[in-house]
Amino acid sequence: MTQIVLQYVLVVLLVVGIAYFVYLIRDKGLNISEDYFGIARTLLDFLGSSDDITANGKSVLRAISEAVNYVEVNYRDEDNRIKEEKAVILAKEAIETFNFENSIPEENLRQLIRLCAVFMPPTNKQDS
């Protein structure tokens, strides 16, 4: 009998925990269905309160994507670590033109660069 009561209590605590987690996400102004790969969360962390995530988020992702595309096209034969460093430099320069209150942390920038690189078409096709 005590095991059944204990199981019900644990289920209730689990439901309360999930509800609290959803409350915390909504409190930050983040829509769960729009947070693909945690990108919106990453952008929320560095954009200030006066910076609009919906208006500037796409611009930031486009700037990073253009930097990654430029590096992939022009440094095709380089090592991936070197290409990532060049993309970080170019992306930082592109993001600085937006004049945000805060700057994006380098680790978050690297994650976004890696995501942009993943979504690009393959450039090193091997002959079969």
Describe this structure in words.
The protein has 128 residues and is an all-alpha fold. It folds into two domains: 1-30; 32-118. It has helices at 2-27, 39-46, 53-74, 80-96, 106-118. α3 (53-74) packs across α5 (106-118) and α4 crosses α5 (106-118). It starts with a helix and ends in a 10-residue tail after the last helix. This is Phage holin. Keywords: Membrane, Transmembrane, Transmembrane helix.
How big a fraction of the residues is strand? Answer: under 5%
- The SSE string, one letter per element, is HHHHH
What helical percentage do the residues reach?
Answer: 55-70%
Distance between the termini: 65 Å
Given the structure, what is the number of helices? 5
Number of structurally distinct domains: 2
Low-confidence stretches: none
Which secondary-structure class do the elements indicate?
mainly alpha
Protein name: Phage holin
Transmembrane segments: 6-25
Organism: Clostridium brassicae
Keywords: Membrane, Transmembrane, Transmembrane helix
